Structures are given as structure tokens and as C-alpha cells.
Amino acid sequence: MQQIRTDHLQESLISTLSDLSDKGKARLRESWAYTFRHEFLIRLDESLFAVLYSEKPSRPNIPVNVLVGLEALKATLGWSDRQMHDNFLFDTQVRYALGYENLGEGDFDLRTVYNFRKRVCDHLDKTGENLIARAFEQVTDAQVDAFEIETGHLRMDTTQIATNVCRMGRLQLLVTILQRTHRMLSTDDQARYAEAFAPYLKGSAEQYVYHIKGQNTKPHMQRIGALMQQLVSELASTYESHEAYQNMARVFCEQFRLKKTKSSSESDDGDQPPTSGTSSESDEQPMTLTSDSDTSSSVPGDDQDIGAHTLSSAENEKPLPTGDLDVSAPAASDDKAGSSGTPLPAGEEEPLTRASDLSRSSSVPSNDQDRAASTPSSAGNDELCPTSDLDAPASPSDDTGTGSSTPSPTGDEEPSTAISDLTAMTMQTDLEPGLMPEIEVRPGQEISPARLRSPDDTEATYRRKAGKAFEGHVANVIETCDLANAFQLILMVQNAPNITEDTTLLLEALCNLVDRTNVHTIINDAGFCSAEVDQALREHGLTQIPTNLAGRTPDPQYTNLADCSIHFDDNNQPIKLTCPHGHTAKVEAGRKPGRFIARWLQEPCGECHFAPHYTGYRPSPKTCLRFSQTDLDRALRRQRMRAHRSGPNDLRAAVEATVGAIKRPFGNDKVPVRGSKRLNQMLIGSAIMVNIRRIHRHMVGLRKEAQGANKEQAPGSGDEGSLFFFLTKWLWPTLNTHFAPAGAF
């Protein structure tokens, strides 16, 4: 049964701290330890963790606030577990921060920390409830209330971060998986497969790869694939629930496929990815005018391109240039607008993969599959690295944060990691009994970026961003940014596989932020913008201000919807818009939901830039402008971006420093733990200490101001308390209390 701690709420009159000098005691109470104790330890509600303990009377538990506090200190100070325990035992400042004032109090074994972590992770797997995250949010909400932090404006940003795992090539990964599988087997099964495993147990996987360096690795992988095929089939009934078996089955499906017989029409280089000739489709289509008389024939369906609308009264019509884009081809103005593939360093064996694999991998599914159909990938966004077809799939370049997806380069099916999908690769009815279907090594272009990178971190994925390759996870940091706040607080930290879109992280956090805060404005970069986000924000009545937009800049020769003043009714529906030339149009609902028609109330001017091309002739008075809800959202988004850029403050910029403060304790952007659960705990622990440092700086500033004010108001301070001042006032009582110039005496 959990026991809630209360002994830390009040300091002891007699303790080990009594041996400190008065100056030492004062320094201790002015240090970060005092702030940590009062702003985190005391505020933490330990009852959140009651589900981890038995309801029956039992031995008292180690206080939860001590265990969580140690995790925060470990994350920010770079301690190992042993160093963390030693500091708890012998460091007076650390013990004071954790509520202990006497040496020997609260002693526990290091194994207690490991058991606590395991219980938290098991509870997360079983229920999906992250207790560490809940505790962080509960403490932060209490801090927000105590310091009256405004939460109306929030900002966020993502960053790449890795866990402490070895980066492996394909062959090294296969050998590692075989060695882990051998450890899983019982003694009898190890003897049964001793001959098959013998070549892979003579050393580490790295040593195995080292001895064949410079040779063709494909025959070695082929032999390993045949062994894995046998093991997956024969061990399923006994070891299917073991993690090592599941990893082997997953790797087998990801790295191998059924051997296919080439038809006469297929060329020898069929495994090479074809050169894409598809140009990048604009995310926002050009605005054009149509004649009112052509309404029945010119109104496209929801799946049609609005660029098909034309001005019926004009001759030799030409489509407008690409207009106000949010997600499209690469743009120089935004680092999220695209990337180019670059060769891997010399000697690097790790295959790169194509962004098209993101939405079809069963191990880590796409987070934005519904957007893939409407946002074809640009050929420039999925460049191939100049390496062999075995070890060099195309790199996933999803810098735009749009979740674009393209068909598989070879037309082959993506590898499936479900155990039930192994049937096709391990059994075949038309073969003789005892025979297995023939398999082959998958070419590099078919390897998904979501494939298993290491058995020690099964959720780590691969991504190329801004021309750099990353393996691991992505973290999203959300904090307040209201100018009225004396300091800002981090409200939430998220992490996910690094192929996860920024928009997915925002959508997952949205309900939590609405429930906990008074948010009305979210400030972010281009990666968080999408139609799904617009819909979710509209439902919650929130406003998004992007500091940049991905895609091409609108053509300044033409007037876009973002250049117009748009007016709304009480239901947030557009009712009127005014073009930059002062002409007004009445907005009506279209025939289909989410579509609108703007009819001009007066005759358009001869220089109307909404025309498909400028001819010098006055357009027809019956012309109208058609646009969709998506077009309207993009226009409003661009207007907010322009207004934010023209303002005196860039509220999003400082979030970069917050991200750096969280990652700074972790050298080379790599946390000293493995797995997404422990990564999340380390990130939250670092965020806790960032908030504590901010509160501590604020409290130190208030203390200095109070000391300065007291010094000015104290009757016995300064010259007014001197003997000379007393005698002067007694001799010349009519003088002011302030000294006269020296020459006056």
C-alpha cells in the first residue's frame, strides 16, 4: 500500500544542517535546491502513482517524489545511475532538495529505482497512461497557477534526438538478431540448432562484419535469410510471445521477400528505382474567375483541381501560375520545404530509404495516409543516394512535414511485420512436404525507413531532414510565450519515431492543451500546418500563426485570396471579401459543402488580377470567384503569417533556445538510455529542471529587488544612520533630511 510522504513539508529544527554556519545555511536556501524542494517536490501529487502499489497493507514504499525527483536530476546533470545514488547518499544539497536534512534518512537500494522504472513502463504498456507525463503536467499546472502565467499564447517546435543504440548495417543487424535468438532458445533447442548457429557465435556481430569487409555481403545475407526462414517456421509454436522471436520475424519480413521470376518484359535493372517524371502538385491552386452562366459546367467536384476554373469571358485563357502554397515543392524560404539526397560517408553500410515507404510499413504506420493521395511526392524530394541497389534505398526526405507518399519504386509490396503475414514466406501448398518457398534479399529501394534499426530500440526510425540523416526519434516541446509573463514554462514534451509528422504531434496534444490551459493562439513553423490541423483548430476555436509556409511564394503579378480582406459572420462563415483595389464581393455557399462563390457587387476594374491573364480588357460583370474551405484556410494562414512578421516581436524564435536547453545535457543529441519510454522520461526530467531554473532565476530577481527596496527604506541604513547626520539634524533642525551640497555649510 502506498504511503504519502509528509515529512518534507516542514524543515526540522535540529538536523545535520544545523552544523552549517549561518552563511552556509543562507547559501543553501538561496540555491536551486530550495526552489526544487518547494516548487517541484512539495507540489508533486504522489497519489497519481497509487496504481503501481498493492492495496493490501505492506511495507512502506520509498517516496514517489524522491524517485521522480532523482530522475529529473539525473537527466539534467548527466549522472549515471550509480552517480545518482551516490549523490543522494552523500550530497547535502541534493538531499535537501529531495526533502531530507539528516544523513541516513530515506536510504534505499539502487534496485528500487530499477523496479520503479519497470512498473511505470509496464503500466504504460498495459493502460497507455504515462504517469511521469501526468506528474509533470500536474506540477506544471500548479506552477502556472502560483505564478499567474498566461497560457493564451503557446509555441512549439520539434527536434531530432537519438537513443543510446549502435548504428548497424543490414548484415550486422541480421547477425545480432540471430545471436539474440540463440540466447532465447532453451538448452535442448540450442543443441538442436548448434551447427546452424555456429558461424554467427564466434564473436560479436561487429567482428563478423569486420572479417568480411570489402566482400559482397549478399551471399551472407542470403544464407542468414534461409536460416531465419527455418527458425521462424519451426519456433513459432514455442517462442511466438518472446520479444527476440518477434524481432526476428519482423526483420525477416523487412529484409527478405519471396523470389520472383522475371518476365521477358522486365529488364535486368528492374530493381533500380525509376526516374520520377511527376512534377510536384501545388497544395494551393490558383484563384480564377468563372462566368455565372457557366456555373453548371464549371463547378468541379471536391476531388477536382480548382485550377481548372477559368474566366469564360476571356479568350485564349491561360491558367494562373501557382499561387499561395503551404505544402508543395521545395522553397528557398523555408528549410522544411524539401531536401536533396546526399551520399553516405565512406564505409557507411546503412541503407537509405524512400519517403514513399512511410505510409505502407506495418511496423510504424503512416501518420498522414489520408493526405498522401492529394499530395503527390515531388521527384526532387526523393533523390537516390549513389550506392548499390542492395544497400541503398532512396532516402525519406519528408522535410516539408506534409506526409507526402509515392508508390513503391519497384512496384513490390512493402514488408509486413505481422507474424500472421509470415505464412506466405514460410509455407507453400504447391511444394513438396518439408520444402520452403524460395526467398531472396530485398533490394535497398524496398527497405522502409520504419524497419528495425536495432533490437534495443524497436521504435527508432530513419529520416533525412535538411540534407542530414537521422536515426531515432522526434521530440516536440510546447511552452507558453505570452509577453505579459515574467518567465515562460514548458507545458508538454512529446516524443515519437522520427518519421512522425509534426502535424500528428500537434493533433495528439491539442485536446490536452485545451483542457489544461486557456490557449487561443498557437505559434509554430510550417511543419505544423495542414488541412487536418485547420479543421481541428476550427473545432476548438483556436488560431494558428505560422512563422513560415512551405512551398513556392505566390506570384506577385496576380492577386491571391490572401490579398483580400475577408469578413465572417457569427458562425465563422465567410460572407464578404474586398480585393486590394477596393471592389467588394458577396460570398455565398456553393453547391457542395466546403465550397464558396464570391460574386462581385460592382463591375470589376480593367486591371483585375484575378483574371487568368492580364489582357487590358475589362472582365465580364458576371464573373465570380470560386474557392474551397481549404483555399480559405490557406489564405487566412498566410495573412496571419504576414501580420506576425510585420509585428515587433517574433514569439516563436525563443522556443529554439528551450529545445536546446532540454537537449544540452545529452551529448551529441543522444540520450544515455534506450527505448522510447525511457527517452520520454529523460526528456520530461530535463524539462522539469528547465522550469525549475527559470523559476529560480525569477525568485532570485525578486529577492534582489526586495533587498534593494529594504535597503533604501531602512532607517538605519546609508548616511541617514550615521553620527554626522544625527548631529547635523540636531544642530540644524530646519534642514531637510537629505544632505545639502558641501558648499552650503
Overview of the molecule:
35% of the residues lie in helices and 11% in strands. Among the domains are: 1-129, no CATH class; 166-283 and 350-455, no CATH class; 289-320 and 555-644, no CATH class. The longest helix is centred in the C-terminal third of the chain and has 38 residues, at 676-713. It has helices at residues 22-29, 32-41, 64-77, 81-90, 92-97, 110-127, 131-146, 170-184, 187-192, 194-197, 205-211, 218-234, 236-239, 243-255, 295-298, 369-372, 423-426, 502-516, 531-540, 629-646, 655-663, 676-713, 723-731, and strands at 153-161, 256-258, 289-291, 439-441, 461-465, 468-480, 490-497, 521-524, 543-546, 565-568, 574-578, 584-589, 595-600, 623-628. The chain has 745 residues and is of the alpha+beta class. Strand 10 and strand 11 form a beta hairpin. The strands form three sheets. Strands 1, 5, 6, 7, 8 and 9 form a six-stranded mixed sheet that branches. A six-stranded antiparallel sheet has the order 3-14-13-12-11-10. The chain has 23 helices and 14 strands.
Short description:
The chain is an alpha+beta fold and 745 residues long. The protein contains 23 helices and 14 strands. Among the domains are: 1-129, no CATH class; 166-283 and 350-455, no CATH class; 289-320 and 555-644, no CATH class.
